[in-house]
Amino acid sequence: MKITDKMQSTLIIVSTILWVVCCILAWNERFIEAIWSGILIMAIYLCLGSSKKGVLSKKFFCYPILIWAVLWAVGFWAAQHFAVMFLDIQPTFTILGMHPSFAMVVFCYWFGGVVTISLGFMLLRKEWLSPDEWDDFKKKIEQMKKKQSAGKHSTNVHMNENIANSIGKGGN
């Protein structure tokens, strides 16, 4: 899936608008709607962050990103469902000792989301970072370190020369 510069800019603008919408909804105590906009924001960030040189792997989009978004949506829908179902009454059942609405958040949002994204990045790591790209990255870091240390050495030499010159002038 190609993500052009224009599409990337559009997605960034859309995510910014969604952040504003999310805040306005939350300020008006419409938390569930705010959460839905949050899922869209995170999906946009995952797509942008997972793309490589303007290309998002379709495989990577389907899993883990799409599955992650579905898990979050199901978790929050179920949490809202059980919260309304047991409004002002004690639940007739628990899930591993938890209120059903909280259990949905724990299992779908937290556990499901973390496992899905982590497993997806691990299983499809070549889709977003090949071994050659990782080696190139490490080489760039080493070059930057060498350049930085050479720059510090150069700066120190010039400082030492300036100090020596100023001391020499002061002593005359």
Structure overview:
- Helix 1 packs antiparallel against helix 2 and helix 2 packs antiparallel against helix 3.
- The longest helix is centred in the last third of the chain and has 41 residues.
- The protein has 2 domains: 125 residues, no CATH class; 41 residues.
- Helix content is 81%, strand content 0%.
- It has 6 helices and no strands.
- It has 172 residues and is mostly helical.
- The protein is elongated and about 70 Å long.
Keywords:
172 residues; 81% helix; 6 helices; mainly alpha; 2 domains
Give the SSE map.
Layout: H1 5-27, H2 31-50, H3 58-85, H4 100-123, H5 125-128, H6 131-171
Helix pairs in contact: 1-2, 2-3, 3-4
Short description:
The protein has six helices and no strands.
Instruction: Give the percentage of residues in beta strands.
Output: under 5%
Q: Please estimate the helix content.
A: over 70%
Low-confidence stretches: none
Q: In the residues, how many domains can be counted?
A: 2
Secondary structure tally, helices: 6
Shape: elongated
Quaternary class: single chain
Major sheet = none
Estimated structural class: mainly alpha
Give the total of beta strands. Answer: 0
